[in-house]
Automatic annotation (TrEMBL):
Name of protein: DNA-binding response OmpR family regulator
Every OmpR/PhoB-type domain range: 120-219
Taxonomy of the source species: Bacteria, Bacillati, Bacillota, Tissierellia, Sedimentibacter
Keywords noted in UniProt: DNA-binding, Phosphoprotein, Transcription, Transcription regulation, Two-component regulatory system
DNA-binding region: 120-219
Species of origin: Sedimentibacter acidaminivorans
């Protein structure tokens, strides 16, 4: 994540808070620095101030869109309708006005991240890659074709991992419907996925049992 905010204290506070929330965050204070860090890091989400020392945030949005499909959240003291319209017309995804509540910001970012993850077809986590369209699981150059239900389970566990949560047993019926008609089938699906992760040689991905609750993805 990239924070482009010219007020040093706010920039530092946001970067520190985001890193604590398990976002990998970088901070820049002007347009030139923002462009350089963006091209190196290619962040998935950008927090972008409008009023910057050497221009305005509006000018950066087309630049970001040209190179990477990042999500852009405007953070600004401008609370007028025109500023919001210009931001959205230039391609911003969301808008929050200073001073803002940090919990509201985290809520917006987590919602944005959930939408991004739900749209992903290829995901990398730990030492594995998996593709929800082709049902391929890859680790250290080795690839397995696994059942669609296992890929689906892996993605749901990944989404929960990103939320710092676990997959509750009661949610299986919501996510899997036909696959999860009986409790033993839930356990069977988890066991098969664990077996495939072991056989493909993953040393960093573990599916742990949250006893009496459900399952969680752990990255070692």
């Amino acid at each position: 994540m990239l924070v482009i905010e010219d007020k040093a204290s706010l920039n530092e506070s946001l970067v520190n808070m985001l890193n604590k929330e398990r976002y990998m965050a970088f901070g820049e204070k002007d347009i030139d620095g923002g462009k350089k860090t963006f091209l190196v890091e290619r962040p998935h989400i950008i927090l972008l101030d409008i009023m910057l020392p050497n221009g305005n945030g509006y000018d950066l949005i087309p630049f970001f869109r040209k190179y990477h499909n990042s999500r852009i959240l405007m953070i600004t003291a401008l609370d007028d309708g025109e500023s919001k319209c210009i931001s959205y017309e230039n391609g911003a995804d969301d808008y929050i006005t200073k001073p803002f509540d940090l919990y509201e910001l985290i809520y917006k970012l987590n919602a944005m991240r959930r939408r991004m993850i739900s749209q992903l077809s290829e995901i990398q986590v730990g030492d594995i890659d998996f593709n929800v369209d082709t049902n391929k699981l890859t680790c250290r150059g080795k690839t397995f074709n696994i059942q669609p239900s296992q890929i689906k389970l892996l993605k749901v566990l990944f989404e929960k991992y990103e939320e710092k949560s676990y997959l509750d047993k009661s949610e299986f019926s919501e996510f899997f419907k036909e696959e999860m008609n009986e409790n033993y089938r839930m356990q069977t699906l988890v066991a098969r996925l664990r077996k495939n992760l072991s056989e493909i040689g993953s040393q960093e991905i573990i599916i742990e049992t949250a006893y009496g609750k459900g399952y969680q993805l752990v990255v070692c």
